[in-house]
Amino acid sequence: xxxxxxxxxxxxxxxxxxxxxxxxxxxxxxxxxxxxxxxxxxxxxxxxxxxxxxxxxxxxxxxxxxxxxxxxxxxxxxxxxxxxxxxxxxxxxxxxxxxxxxxxxxxxxxxxxxxxxxxxxxxxxxxxxxxxxxxxxxxxxxxxxxxxxxxxxxxxxxxxxxxxxxxxxxxxxxxxxxxxxxxxxxxxxxxxxxxxxxxxxxxxxxxxxxxxxxxxxxxxxxxxxxxxxxxxxxxxxxxxxx
Amino acid sequence: xxxxxxxxxxxxxxxxxxxxxxxxxxxxxxxxxxxxxxxxxxxxxxxxxxxxxxxxxxxxxxxxxxxxxxxxxxxxxxxxxxxxxxxxxxxxxxxxxxxxxxxxxxxxxxxxxxxxxxxxxxxxxxxxxxxxxxxxxxxxxxxxxxxxxxxxxxxxxxxxxxxxxxxxxxxxxxxxxxxxxxxxxxxxxxxxxxxxxxxxxxxxxxxxxxxxxxxxxxxxxxxxxxxxxxxxxxxxxxxxxxxxxxxxxxxxxxxxxxxxxxxxxxxxxxxxxxxxxxxxxxxxxxxxxxxxxxxxxxxxxxxxxxxxxxxxxxxxxxxxxxxxxxxxxxxxxxxxxxxxxxxxxxxxxxxxxxxxxxxxxxxxxxxxxxxxxxxxxxxxxxxxxxxxxxxxxxxxxxxxxxxxxxxxxxxxxxxxxxxxxxxxxxxxxxxxxxxxxxxxxxxxxx
Lengths: 242, 446
Known about the structure:
The complex is a heterodimer. Chain A is mainly beta.
């Protein structure tokens, strides 16, 4: 997290720290499922990521040292969205995955699931959201969970910015962008898989609207997020009744 | 003598009848009928020279070595002895008719002609039994030692109970082994009672009535079996067994007390020696149906279905429990219970108890718990618990029309199962609550 703040216990109780095996983030859905980015499981340009790697799923604390002392939650299955293509380094479309845990976690003040969006209004520009993670702060790993507060950006602005960079990166309808050109707050490596959340004031609850997916560098420009609303049906299908 | 072939009936006439009979004539006709019959004879016509005392011509009838009469005379004549319509009956099967004439038949110098006689006879049944006490001359011995039964043309003998007819068909021998009594009540006595019983008896009287009945024995007066002052029943004795269990050995003049055999099978053995003059014994036995004790519930929750005023052999009763109670036989739970009255007056099973149904410890609710609405820790019939979820992190899954208190309320049913009014046995689910951090991020600085 670039330019953010240190989170307090209970601020982001859905935050999950993953090592699959690279460091990443995730968010708790229900008490048995972790929402994350597909590329935290199968990173781009690293084909052949085997299943025999040690995979850690930790949650329940904001301090990394404390977090590592908590129980690891073994994974039962990994569900990668079929639209995700590991072999296309410039295309993060479908960058969403679900980790099914072997056992349910016990919810409490520091471990709570996040809700899913139910309408498009969560993606209106300038709506402020929070992004949290254990990812890089400038050039070092933080010792605790950090967060930023960034607005949903105008789609055209992000597209223009990408064009100005002469990038081949795909900005699909399954993504949205947040942040700003002059805003020094951003997610960074290690935050992927974490969620972009905002308060649904109508229902008095917090909703995950995006998954930290990709960006060009960290700390300037826009960050790109998987648009969760487009994947709610898939998530529900994978999770079944839960 | 002129024997007539044995027939059941026939006629006898004087020579040349109806023409005048000859002089100087004497013949004896022997009338015989089959054994078992006797001869009855009646004169149809009679015309024999009359004389004082029937000295000249006469008809003489005899039977059973007795003279039944000497007859002569004419119809209308006062002289002589006419047989008239008199019936002559022999005691045995033989009758003799002698016809005698002298050298002439004259009256005042006039020769007279007499036709003679015509008589009919037929066989009539001889009641041999009637003559039992006063025997006929031909058969001086009593025909039957005990009982005599007459029939047309003969008779047969039988013996009183306890005796058997000998091969000679007349005499009776004591036989009292294997006497079986199966009637529900009756009398049994020693042979000849109340006259002295015969010597050397080995009598065995068995009473067998249906299962489920018990026998009662009551001895009558007089009771008299040869006894000895010092030694117990050394000569004759009556042994009584019920179900092979000895109820006693009796003798003397003191009759045994009334005996309740408590069994449907009683055997009496009566042994006598070669001497003695005691009058024996007699008893009256009766039966009573065996009753089982009235079943009584052991607790207030036990229900005896359709109770009867009394229960006897083969009757049964069914026990159920009031709603919410479980039939128990010891520690074993029963689905149903019935007991049958046995032939010894006992029930085949002991009365069960009814224990209040216990639903057991309620199932634990994942991410929730329950509390007792009724007495804490009591899981019996009608107990109630309320499930709840660990809020605020979990919330109970309910239908739109329901509430958490309704969905979480469980009652211990009469079947011993915790049940919810709407969803039955299925316990509720506690679902995670999303998006409700306890300490959400907030910025005070503006």
